[in-house]
Amino acid sequence: MSQELIVLLAESLWETCYMVGVSALASAILGLPLGVILVATDKGHILENLYINRILGAIANAARSTPFIILMVAIIPLTRLIVGTSIGTEAAIVPLSIAAIPFVGRIVESSLREVDHGVVEAAQAMGASPRQIIFKVLIPEALPSIILGLTITVISLIGYSAMAGAIGGGGLGDLAIRYGYQRFRADIMLITVIILIAQVQIVQSCGDYLARRLDKR
């Protein structure tokens, strides 16, 4: 393998890590509150508001049901508005984040619903406020499950980032398309696949380890 291709592989790996890292951070920052609101505003919960719950639920479902490749094309005007271009690594972060936020929200919602409602009732009986219940009961109890959910999200984003490369998003997917497919370089395609598999294995192992460390049971 030539020095040029090694440099291209290194640059593509960095672009993938950058895309996935930034979009994962954005989805965690916005998806966690979304999941909390979906649970807290549900019927019979601490901040019951079915109107807000149903609107947010419908938006999350609509975003999750849209195939990523279609989402990327559909929000090109928004991507241009935010980053000034629809091509490249920076541009790919926008659809990646938008795709991941409702996914994280639903994962967080599912994790919080696993918390024994008796624990919430006990906190209410002791006079805990909704804020205290959320930050001192629900999230700490569900944290290992949330970590595993975020791990799944990062792994999904790795796959999405490779897909983004097919339409000029940069990263390993772009390298695989331009060199592995269009130039019939099977070795480049194979190396790209191996790197993506290694990334997934590392992320999954780290997520499992962290979830075990935080599990108080």
What does this structure look like?
The protein has helices at 3-40, 50-65, 68-74, 76-83, 89-113, 117-125, 130-164, 171-181, 186-214. It is elongated and about 70 Å long. Helix content is 82%, strand content 0%. The relative contact order is 0.14. It is an all-alpha fold and 217 residues long. The model has no long low-confidence stretch (mean pLDDT 88). Helix 1 runs antiparallel to helix 2 (50-65) and helix 1 runs parallel beside helix 5 (89-113). It is built from nine helices and no strands.
Short précis:
This protein is mainly alpha-helical. 82% of the residues lie in helices and 0% in strands.
Name the descriptors:
217 residues; 0% strand
SSE topology string: HHHHHHHHH
List unreliable stretches of 5+ residues. none
Distance between the termini: 50 Å
Largest sheet: none
Strand content: under 5%
Rounded mean pLDDT is 88
- Helical element count? 9
Shape: elongated
> Which oligomeric form is depicted?
single chain
Residues in helix, %: over 70%
| Rounded Rg | 20 Å
Q: What structural class should be given to the helix and strand makeup?
A: mainly alpha
Q: Give me the count of strands.
A: 0
Secondary-structure topology with pairs:
Elements (H helix, E strand, L loop, with lengths): L2 H38 L9 H16 L2 H7 L1 H8 L5 H25 L3 H9 L4 H35 L6 H11 L4 H29 L3
Helix pairs in contact: 1-2, 1-5, 1-7, 1-8, 2-5, 4-5, 5-7, 6-7, 7-8, 7-9, 8-9
